[in-house]
Write a structure and sequence with these properties.
single chain, 12 strands, 5-stranded mixed sheet, 7-stranded mixed sheet, GNAT_acetyltra_N, acyltransferase activity, transferring groups other than amino-acyl groups, globular
Length: 266
């Protein structure tokens, strides 16, 4: 039986050992949702789960494009995702036992990928280095915090939408979000912002419009956002979708924690 976890922390044992802040956002109730299956589907896993009636044995944490899968593989949970027909999602299983059920439900729509985690160590950052990177903007470019006007500008452009997309309105972003953009001729051309928020920090999203890439803008606004997070006592978490993103993270002071498998669903 599929139901929404209420309170979300009821699903915490299934995500034990998970270090992804998007899951933490869902668990602490800041953003996102957690759905649980109280009876894992027959034939999708081996072994017995002697749990009390109505105790969740499978869970998925959903926030934006991300779906984290934990516990016993559950076809009903996967079918719920499939039935909602999102144009794009990233499925991250907590164990290999989810792989066959994912392929069974999504077939050729499921593309295996590798993502790259970084260590969550606030002491790894060098303020001096980050300040130097922040000040390395080319002539004609300036840094600016995401205010109400820039929030709406980011919403209106495809390249920048994910900088604010998980915050449905300016008031929500003002309360929970945090971001810096690079302005050129008064318009945002690059930005670093909170993709999501949890109690003690944010998950960073960085984007640059195509014509302004490879100019150091992502590095500068990323450094500025990390410094602001540390100043506010928030941890700026970084999870890399590509090796290029991991390289930028390392330039800013993050240390690799290792690759992990995921699936892109289109």
């Amino acid at each position: 039986m599929i139901q929404k976890a209420c309170p979300p922390m009821a699903a915490a044992p299934l995500f034990d050992g998970c270090h992804d802040t998007i899951v933490w956002s869902c668990l602490d109730g800041t953003m996102g949702e957690i759905f649980v299956d109280t009876e894992a589907s027959p034939g999708t896993y081996s072994g017995t789960f002697p749990v009390p009636e109505a105790h969740p044995v499978s869970a998925m944490a959903v926030l934006g494009d991300f779906v984290f899968l934990a516990g016993a593989p559950s076809l009903p949970l996967l079918e719920k995702i499939h039935g909602e027909k999102h144009p794009f999602q990233i499925l991250i299983p907590q164990s290999d036992s989810w792989n066959l059920p994912i392929v069974r439900i999504f077939k050729e729509s499921a593309k295996p990928i590798t993502r790259y985690a970084t260590k969550k160590d606030p002491k790894a950052f060098s303020a001096e280095k980050l300040l130097a990177i922040r000040e390395s903007l080319p002539a004609g470019c300036t840094l600016h915090p995401i205010d109400e006007n820039i929030y709406h500008q980011c919403q209106a452009e495809g390249w920048s939408r994910d900088l604010v997309s998980q915050f449905p309105d300016w008031d929500t972003y003002r309360r929970l979000g945090l971001g810096i953009v690079v302005l050129a001729d008064g318009k945002p051309v690059s930005g670093a912002s909170s993709y999501s928020r949890y109690k003690d920090g944010i998950e960073i999203e960085i984007d640059t419009t195509e014509s302004f890439r490879r100019k150091g803008l992502a590095s500068a606004c990323g450094a500025a956002l990390i410094l602001e997070c540390l100043n506010q006592g928030l941890y700026p978490s970084w999870d890399a979708h590509t090796l290029q993103s991991l390289s930028l993270a390392q330039k800013l002071g993050y240390q690799p924690a290792g690759p992990y498998p995921a699936y892109e669903i289109t």
